Amino acid sequence: MSFITLTTDFGTKDHFVGAVKGAIYSELSDAKIVDITHEISPFNITETGYIIKNSYKSFPEGTIHIIGVDSELSADNKHIAIELDNHFFVCPDNGIISMIASEIQPTKIVEINIHDRTVSSFPVLDIFVQVACFIARGGNLTVIGKEIQEFKTLVEIQPKVNQKISQIIGGVLYIDNYGNVITNISRKMFQEIGKGRNFKITASRYFFTKVHDKYNEIIGKNPKEPRQFDGHKLAIFNSAGYLEIAIYRSNLNTVGGASTLLGLAYRDPIIIDFFTESKPEYTPLS
Amino acid sequence: MSFITLTTDFGTKDHFVGAVKGAIYSELSDAKIVDITHEISPFNITETGYIIKNSYKSFPEGTIHIIGVDSELSADNKHIAIELDNHFFVCPDNGIISMIASEIQPTKIVEINIHDRTVSSFPVLDIFVQVACFIARGGNLTVIGKEIQEFKTLVEIQPKVNQKISQIIGGVLYIDNYGNVITNISRKMFQEIGKGRNFKITASRYFFTKVHDKYNEIIGKNPKEPRQFDGHKLAIFNSAGYLEIAIYRSNLNTVGGASTLLGLAYRDPIIIDFFTESKPEYTPLS
Amino acid sequence: MSFITLTTDFGTKDHFVGAVKGAIYSELSDAKIVDITHEISPFNITETGYIIKNSYKSFPEGTIHIIGVDSELSADNKHIAIELDNHFFVCPDNGIISMIASEIQPTKIVEINIHDRTVSSFPVLDIFVQVACFIARGGNLTVIGKEIQEFKTLVEIQPKVNQKISQIIGGVLYIDNYGNVITNISRKMFQEIGKGRNFKITASRYFFTKVHDKYNEIIGKNPKEPRQFDGHKLAIFNSAGYLEIAIYRSNLNTVGGASTLLGLAYRDPIIIDFFTESKPEYTPLS
User: What is the ipTM of this complex?
Assistant: First the structure.
């Protein structure tokens, strides 16, 4: 039994996802196909990287992840298969994999070369399914592709640090279902650069001097009226390990979320300033 | 083989659902995971109760239902596991279960106490999956929690009856995919209070004196032009057994549905008056 | 093990899909249930036909396809089960199947007659599941229905050809997730009528004199700046074999897609004129 996941920008209305699943089951009737998402914003590689990074690891080792975002073959956009962290990824070489592969060295990367003369505008169905089923049956990557050493990297997902090591200049990576704003600044980076110093996070015209571990930390212990905190803003290291600007109990369709209420959009800057002064301008929180 | 269902407000774009499924398969590779929905309005407990009530029963006995809506642990919001009607529910103790448990007595309720020191902002992944897999492997609830007798109840889902037993004062519980407006008044309550009397249902500035069993009853038998009834309003006992105000063949994205056309929103009052007069002001329908 | 697919207009928020899956698993615990889509526009039969046509074939032979769109039983809307192309379809007789069955002759059609006295407003749950599970267990169609020879056909999906065989008058059949506009004109029809002549496709106030096979053909070979073509319009035979008017790398939520940018909606006319003149008014592309 093989696990095959799907991450695409196909949406769930069209026939694309159904056709892909049918094709997999026709080749491997006992496969377990799991949708990670089909709601990637069309052609958005950064979103794809964030989502695949935060979900692949929870699957069993050996799982094959098909990633179908901006996957039409061209001179500029090859198809690759990657073995990494005991998982397999079948995807275009457009930077999608770099968010994972920048931290964990791939075991093997091949440029897929099983494309015959057929011109395809639906490569996930015509190529990726075939490659995934080949891997699921225990096939070696080098049979379906030429081994390569490099993959394209995505520049925008990396925050910068200034020369004095007093400032991290990050940005908005993703807006989630609750309208919470996820930045490209990881807890790890925050701790390595911050080294316990006081700090001020600036997002749009708002700032934060504390980062929480749970959303409901802002209501303190034994609260009498937890609902009065609905709509309060906070910074948190989310379950994926990234700095997130959130609204407590937000709802994009009614009261709004951090993205709409604080006016934060994809790629907007998020700045963290660290201080060593003994008397900072602001009052540090406990 | 175990059936595990998921009902959450995670949406289907983020990595949350994929991560949860991967974690379940990593523990129980032959589990059958079924999405009930991930489109609950964020933090909406009433919606969750309505949906889980109307879907759990069709699953095989022994199915484990993970409910992840407003599930962050706090002094005010414990995690519980419930055995009821030969099904298992793993959820927060925030009233979600009360719509089912008010009609069917739980066999056992435990307050989950396997939380270690780890602070978690993603308890469905970190706690509920673990509990569900434990139950799936045949584990006893009392091993992962302390038995309790009470669960929180949801007040707003109960309609009221006046002293003269001539009026039910209910409200809007849920708006469905077609814009149809589902009330908290069950067919059972309607029949027990009404006892066959004539009645008038008032919803916004509209009223109804007949309740149908099928949507197309309004077009009568052997109609020549069924489409001329598109857009007509009607009251029906829906397949879940609740009084519903509907528009025949509605479409929220084009012509609108009952919610938009009749101006009915979540929590709006729905009143039923019963009459014993021999000559009511209105003409009773057959 | 049986494959059962679901194609409905239920949406994914309500309890309908969960209830149907639970009912199938309760009868056939080892069934493989696959969602084709639940996002059909309410009651839209043309959309349903397009989607089921383009997905059913990729599933293993013997797959049972439940189609739940506009399926309430009436004198005018019978329930049928069809064997066709080694697949089974359980659906209302409202034209849904005609897009497939107009090209491939059904092996057998029965009018389902297992409805007992129970009036049902949820026939997919109460009838279609029962029929599908019966077929999955190897049951013969004639046991659950009366064999019939005819099914309802959908007129609007057929383009017309003028008397001089110089013009195809088609229309918009479907708008996909990227806002691309799919017409009812197939590549096969285009080639049979066009016979290699030059042509001009008119869609709203735009026209096209070339039809591509891949979206990125418009950027030519070895492009230096592929992104400068984002937002360009093109005509393509899509992976389903239909003429499609597309925007290169479109996004309905941001820059828009062909439907919004070119102002094309469901049922709008799409005209193809074929030319035999040696000197057409326009310059044919290579």
Answer: 0.91
